[in-house]
Amino acid sequence: MYIVTAEEMYGIDQFSMKHTGVEASILMENAGREIAQRIMDMVGFEQSILVLAGSGNNGGDGFVIARTLRNMGYQASVLQVVDDEKITGHAAYHKHLYQKCDGIVDPLDKGREIIERLDKEVVVVDAMVGIGVKGMLRDPLHSIVTQLNQLENLTISVDIPSGLPADEGEADFIAVQASHTFMIGAIKQTAFVQHTAPYYGEWDCLDIGFPTRAFEQLENERKIWTEKEFQHTFPKRSAYDHKGDHGKGLIIGGSANMPGALGLTTRAALRSGAGLVTAGTTDKVIQRIATFCPEATFLTLPEENDHLQYNDEIEYAKFDAVALGIGMGREATSRPIIRQAASSKLPLIIDGDGLTHLKEDLTVLDGKEEPVILTPHPGEMAMLLELSIKDVLMRPFYYAKKFAEDYNVYVVLKGAFTIITTPEGKQAVNVSGNAGLAKGGSGDVLTGIILTMIMQKQSIFEGLCNACFIHGKSADLLVQGQHSEHDLLASDVIEGVSLVYRTFL
To answer: Which reactions are catalysed by this chain (predicted)?
Structure first.
């Protein structure tokens, strides 16, 4: 499923009509009928349905929905929230069809009264404003939306909640707080932005007949990484494989104050399927995590004041990929390890404290030909970009892409919706996972799974997307079973990896 901006969605519309000959009225009919069918699956036959119809495509969809519901015997009526002269073109055509089927259209001047008198059992369909909205809604729509949001009725939005921007980066708006949104053709970008996502409520994306070529012409490729992609790309294993076929990973990190972080990463890499994992850390940390990771091997590194020190004797050639920074602390004396690892001829994952060290010397990325993967949360992304966290959360797609392209790295921007970005700007969103992952150690577990995935027979991008899927789905399956979002621990997520493999492979 593609993720688009408003401009990209308009381009898909225009391409479809120009290159395939499909008419806008047919797309409108398809959209309205599909949404009406979904509403019938959700709503009891005895319930009344009020469609709030505006102008343009969104209003036209609303008239089709009302007509389809009435033809199926439902009690559906329309409140037109704009003046008659604003209903033109294909929307006017579908309004005429609706009225020919004995449909009732209440005018705008009755709007306030009708909404005030709504019974709680009446289902409201929001088809007022589509993806073209800019800035604050004006009256009467502003008042109608404010009034609607005070009700407890089930509210279903068509394509996008009215008043909500389709593109990231907008903060000044008032929008319908939908119970459910049926997006049409493609998912709107703001469904994955922290401050706008809640307005959609539950959502689905419906196929109404846009040709595949319409999406292939998009300049910016953004997709959701789903169970289907995971199953299609995850590499199969042969009965003749040996441990060397599944990767020899090196993990560098740990300190006296944070030994558990390295232990979680190491165990996660082992549990997710790495052939061999070596943890490079201080002797004190090894003593504290060895029993937690008995299958791992260990590399003792020098320390000073309980923090890792540079060691030029690490034999990177023995390994297939390196992850570093996990729990290593922010002492300046540890910083040379970043440059040393970056000079190796191996794929490199930088996480946690490693990102803080990287910020002090971003030139270590210059000229590195092997893949570099950064795994920041929004605070670390803001630190790297010298922005506020609010800035990053407002435009996560833009800033992840900008940093990835500027520094030729892969970026895994963690959050409720983790965004994976390639150096070329290709992006995917992982939607697995739940609030149980909002715990210390969850990111360390993800880094271990990423290390394993990039050593398997799949592209780096596929490996990163599959790692995020596994991490989130482990939490989902555990919460469906013996855990809750409150008690779930990062170490539980490691043990849940086997549930993901058994369930989806």
So the answer is: (6S)-NADPHX + ADP = AMP + phosphate + NADPH + H(+); (6S)-NADHX + ADP = AMP + phosphate + NADH + H(+); (6R)-NADHX = (6S)-NADHX; (6R)-NADPHX = (6S)-NADPHX
